[in-house]
Design a protein that fits this description.
27% of the residues lie in helices and 32% in strands. By secondary structure, the chain is an alpha+beta fold. Strand 6 (137-147) and strand 7 form a beta hairpin.
């Protein structure tokens, strides 16, 4: 397909009195147009400087809106070309479920042991991850997830304290199910999958040799207002667990 030369200018109506962040109000309508096929692959989008000026928002807000689309695999940025809708074959829809639900659905018996549950003020980095002010009360959670009595994963999560399930609840239920019971409407997530070797502490808990291969996943989950509800940093036994993805063309 030949490169397109027209530039799409998103028609966005901003509600500045809404609790929904402006960057989310900008990016969400564009995201829906791309997923619905209304914006073809290769369509160039308005640059952040023009967008910021036209919509009367700060340049960092416009940049964050476009970056959310990049993080979701919906658009790509290239020097000298700008931002354009990504090729269709790259999109990877992922169902937003917890490991607890995935294991149960697959016929396993999941159990959980809470290793750490600490309520404290967010550090500067943690505040940035959760999009809250530094010092905001958060809960740091570390859990061991088992399947049929065998260790499967070490799960580390940061959750705003105002919505965090209790330690007792986390012993018997999945984080996402517990958040939904609190009427938190989960909407989207950005995740990255990688790998590393098990440390001595990892190996002792997961019953693996030190240096064994572990699959890793980092995930940031948002509610339907664009607010971050949890940040996860998880490690899975590569000998017992794998990630499956189904890829679609549009």
């Amino acid at each position: 397909m030949a490169a397109r030369t027209d530039i799409y200018v998103p028609k966005v109506s901003l509600d500045r009195s809404s609790p929904v962040p402006l960057y989310f109000q900008i990016s969400e309508p564009i995201s829906k147009l791309i997923l619905d096929g209304a914006l073809e692959p290769g369509t160039r989008l308005e640059d952040e400087l023009s967008m910021a000026k036209r919509l009367a928002v700060s340049r960092p807000t416009a940049r964050k809106a476009l970056q959310r689309l990049v993080d979701g695999g919906l658009v790509v940025r290239r020097r000298g070309v700008g931002t354009a809708v990504a090729p269709t074959q790259v999109h990877r829809p992922v169902e937003l479920t917890s490991l607890n639900a995935d294991l149960a659905q697959a016929g396993h018996h999941p159990t959980t042991r809470v290793l750490d549950y600490v309520t404290r003020g967010a550090t500067e980095d943690e505040a940035e991850w959760l999009s809250v002010p530094t010092g905001t009360e958060i809960v740091s959670i570390r859990r061991l997830r088992n399947a049929d009595g065998e260790p499967i994963a070490l799960l580390t999560n940061l959750v705003p304290a105002r919505i965090a399930p209790t330690s007792e609840e986390l012993e018997t239920g999945g984080l996402y199910d517990l958040l939904r019971k609190r009427e938190i409407h989960l909407s989207t997530a950005h995740q990255s999958i990688g790998a590393r070797n098990a440390t001595k502490a990892d190996a002792e808990v997961l019953l693996e040799p030190r240096g064994a291969a572990l699959l890793t996943m980092t995930r940031t989950t948002y509610d339907d207002k664009g607010q971050v509800v949890e940040v996860g940093r998880h490690a899975y036994r590569a000998s017992r667990y794998s990630f499956d993805s189904t890829l679609f063309t549009r």
